[in-house]
């Protein structure tokens, strides 16, 4: 008898280790029943917040998470969110308690505005903290109507400062630095004027590149005439300044992050948008260089790679570039300060790896981007600012402007020579590898920093986020009911023996993400 009992115990223990017994599962849970009209208001608020966040620079994952956090905070636990490059769809099948609700919003424009993004993320945090629905809706419309933080003149001057900073990184003379400032200013004014006319960005990029090539060819021709100061100007530095300016707004990091996060449609849309804008830049430069060559004013192909200047000039240039990009993206003062520090930090990582340790350039770029984005993700959470805001500005100093120019100039100057073609292809391949290293390093840094941010913030890491709980007077866990509109059905609570959510929702980001 004892042997049979021991055998049954062993068999039972083995069975429990391998199979779940459905009869042991407590099936009761809280079932909030929310009026259809209120549910539609909740979904509408979540959808509008998601649309604004997507249009001002947030990644698809952050947008999806923000929408789920809002709906769960108000008791809607069965919402599905679908984010693509230019649309947001929210659907709630209502769990059999009402008719399904599906809402869609088209994202008609995309322009970074990191100060507004910071306010939107703060609103989501306030909603989870208990903000009533009516107050949250009012606050959303207040944030939505806030204009861009800086006037167009400030943005144009910040774009011109990009050219000056690049010249400083290459150790250019004061006169070449001044010309880089003028060239960048001309490009910025051209693109701003075309943007007011609603010219597509492809032609906007091409026009900016044509203006840049024309200015560089003019300066080079004046130097050929023996005019003092102009004869020592390096055209490659001027071209690199303009290329970094026109590539500064390209969200390579965001596109790569969406692809790694599994948002294939959104990543594909972003990458195609980046490809079209880059093609506009390439077409403009190629047309300008070919036109100058046919007029007998072709630019000479540099015999060697343009070297960077001293460490101090490079550090100052990286600092100014990061600050300028933060201004262009409408960042607040805290984001500007953090971006500048991260720009110098990223440059420091690149300098140590590529210069002092002798690693390949793209390996140094990967290391610099990884360090800057990792530190930026942690610091951004502590300062309650968007991590994408500070990391994007820190990446721009490592954009491969000179490699792009050397490759394009080499393609124009090939004249059927295979060796020249291979040199041009090598420069463009180096630029592509640098861009991939930049994006992958930045994305990996954000991913590695996410769990550390949660630990530093004393948060519990869960697979999925749950609706915020409240404690009733009797000590029993219950959902908090926020009465914002008249409802036909009150929140019905079924007594539960196990208050754990059987299907928890992920909440990897908290305040400032």
TrEMBL record:
Localization in the cell: Cell membrane
Record domain Threonine/Serine exporter ThrE: where: 315-444
Transmembrane domains' residue ranges: 202-224, 236-259, 271-293, 305-328, 335-353, 359-380, 387-409, 429-454
Region of interest (Disordered), residue spans: 486-513
Membrane topology of this protein: Multi-pass membrane protein
UniProt keyword annotations, A-Z: Cell membrane, Membrane, Transmembrane, Transmembrane helix
Origin: domain of life: Bacteria
Protein name: Threonine/serine exporter family protein
Organism: Microbacterium nanhaiense
């Amino acid at each position: 008898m004892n042997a049979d009992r021991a055998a049954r115990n062993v068999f039972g223990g083995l069975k429990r280790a391998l199979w779940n017994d459905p009869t042991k599962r407590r099936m009761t849970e809280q079932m909030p029943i929310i009026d259809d009209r209120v549910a539609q208001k909740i979904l509408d608020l979540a959808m509008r917040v998601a649309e604004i966040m997507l249009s001002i620079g947030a990644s698809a994952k952050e947008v999806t998470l923000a929408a789920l956090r809002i709906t769960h905070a108000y008791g809607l636990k069965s919402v599905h969110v679908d984010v693509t490059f230019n649309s947001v769809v929210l659907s709630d099948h209502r769990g059999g308690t009402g008719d399904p609700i599906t809402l869609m919003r088209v994202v008609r424009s995309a322009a970074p505005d990191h100060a507004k993004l910071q306010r939107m993320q703060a609103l989501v945090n306030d909603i989870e903290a208990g903000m009533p629905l009516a107050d949250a809706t009012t606050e959303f419309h207040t944030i939505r109507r806030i204009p861009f933080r800086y006037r167009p003149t400030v943005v144009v001057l910040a774009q011109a400062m990009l050219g000056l900073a690049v010249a400083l990184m290459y150790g250019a003379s004061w006169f070449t630095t001044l010309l880089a400032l003028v060239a960048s200013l001309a490009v910025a004014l051209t693109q701003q004027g075309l943007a007011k006319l609603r010219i597509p960005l492809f032609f906007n990029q091409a026009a900016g590149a044509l203006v840049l090539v024309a200015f560089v060819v003019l300066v080079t021709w004046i130097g050929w005439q023996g005019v003092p100061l102009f004869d020592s100007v390096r055209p490659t530095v001027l071209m690199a300044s303009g290329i970094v300016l026109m590539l500064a707004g390209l969200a390579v990091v965001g596109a790569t992050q969406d692809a790694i996060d599994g948002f294939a449609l959104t990543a594909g849309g972003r990458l195609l948008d980046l490809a079209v804008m880059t093609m506009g830049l390439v077409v403009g430069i190629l047309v300008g260089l070919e036109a100058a060559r046919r007029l007998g004013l072709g630019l000479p192909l540099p015999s060697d790679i343009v070297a960077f200047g001293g460490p101090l000039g490079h550090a100052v240039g990286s600092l100014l570039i990061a600050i300028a990009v933060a201004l262009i993206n409408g960042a607040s003062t805290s984001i500007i300060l953090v971006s500048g520090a991260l720009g110098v930090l990223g440059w420091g990582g690149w300098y140590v790896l590529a210069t002092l340790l002798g690693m390949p350039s793209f390996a140094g770029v990967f290391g610099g981007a990884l360090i800057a984005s990792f530190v930026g993700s942690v610091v951004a959470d502590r300062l309650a600012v968007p991590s994408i805001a500070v990391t994007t500005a820190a990446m721009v100093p490592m954009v491969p402007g000179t490699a792009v120019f050397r490759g394009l100039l080499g393609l124009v100057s090939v004249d059927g020579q295979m060796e020249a073609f291979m040199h041009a292809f090598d420069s463009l391949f180096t630029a592509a590898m640098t861009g991939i290293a930049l994006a992958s390093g930045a994305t990996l840094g954000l991913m590695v920093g996410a769990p550390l941010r949660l630990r530093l913030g004393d948060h519990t890491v869960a697979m999925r986020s749950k609706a915020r709980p409240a404690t009733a007077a009797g000590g029993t866990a219950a959902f908090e009911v926020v009465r914002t509109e008249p409802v036909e059905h009150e929140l019905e609570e079924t007594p539960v023996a196990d208050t754990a959510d059987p299907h928890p929702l992920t909440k990897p980001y908290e305040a400032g993400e």
